[in-house]
Amino acid sequence: MPKKTRNTKTKIVEAAWDLFYRQGYDETTVDDIVEQSQTSKGSFYHYFESKDALLGSLAYLFDNKYEELKDKIDPNMNSFDVLLFLNKELFDLIDNKIDQTIIANLYSTQLIKKGEKSLLDNDRFYYKLLRHIVSRGQEKGELTDTMTVNEIVRYYAMCERTLISEWCLSNFTFSLKLFAENNFPKLLSCLKK
Fold first, then answer.
1. Which residues on neighbouring strands pair with residue 192, listed in sequence order?
2. CA–CA dist 82, 87 (Å, integer)
3. How many Å apart are CA 86 and CA 103, to the nearest integer?
4. Contact indicator for 20, 8 with CB cutoff of 8 Å
5. Among 15, 34, 50, which residue terminates a domain?
6. Lowest-confidence range among 43-47, 51-55, 140-144, 182-186?
7. SS3 for 96?
8. Are residues 39 and 58 in the same domain?
9. Tens of pLDDT, residues 113-164
10. Which of 7-16, 65-74, 151-160 holds the top average pLDDT?
11. Are both 90 and 133 inside the same structural domain?
């Protein structure tokens, strides 16, 4: 994808999610998104059929966050700690920038949707980065070798979805980031060598 195209789509997605968080999904219009993203309605409709189509773009927003975080990873950090760092940063984003009901809606639509499920797309940057970290962790003897790289990545992603699901089912009565800080290391402890 050409850089200009990617930047336009990124601007639209980031503006939309910022507006959804600040003023709510129902109160946000396509015109609001176009204005905040400093793009055009034609650009918006080039990438998205409607405002509802943006729900599937949350995975894209998460991937942008992971691309940003990739450059912040200390190369000397233990792979297990890198996985915890990525989770902490993602859940901080969800706690502070994503409307809670939209997360719940996204998860429910992914459960009933036929065909492509954006959260499970193995070609996403999220999965590529995790495979890289896990592979290096196994090479350095920091992560278990009793599971394949793909099995570990799948387990990690499943644990993240489990925590998010619990948070949604509990009506968002606690901080997702703090909940993960207390529970995610326990869930991942089986990955340590």
1. 143
2. 9
3. 18
4. no
5. 50
6. 51-55
7. helix
8. no
9. 655 566 667 888 999 999 999 999 999 999 999 999 999 999 999 999 899 9
10. 151-160
11. yes
Assign residue 44 the CATH number of its domain. 1.10.10.60
Question: Chain-wide mean pLDDT for the chain?
Answer: 88
pTM recorded for the entire structure: 0.81
Domain end point (choices 33, 50, 67): 50
One-letter amino acid of 168: C
Task: Report DSSP letters for 152-184, one per residue.
Answer: HHHHHHHHHHHHHHHHHHTTT-S-HHHHHHHHH
Q: Same domain for 60 and 86?
A: yes
| Partner residues linked to 143 by β-bridges | 192
Q: State how far the Cα of 40 lies from the Cα of 23, in Å rounded to an integer.
A: 21
Classify burial at 68, counting beta carbons within 10 Å of its beta carbon; exposed 0-12, middle 13-18, buried 19 or more.
Answer: exposed
Q: State whether 59 and 136 are in the same domain.
A: yes
Instruction: Look up the domain containing 32 and give its range.
Output: 1-50
Which CATH number goes with the domain that contains 133?
A: 1.10.357.10
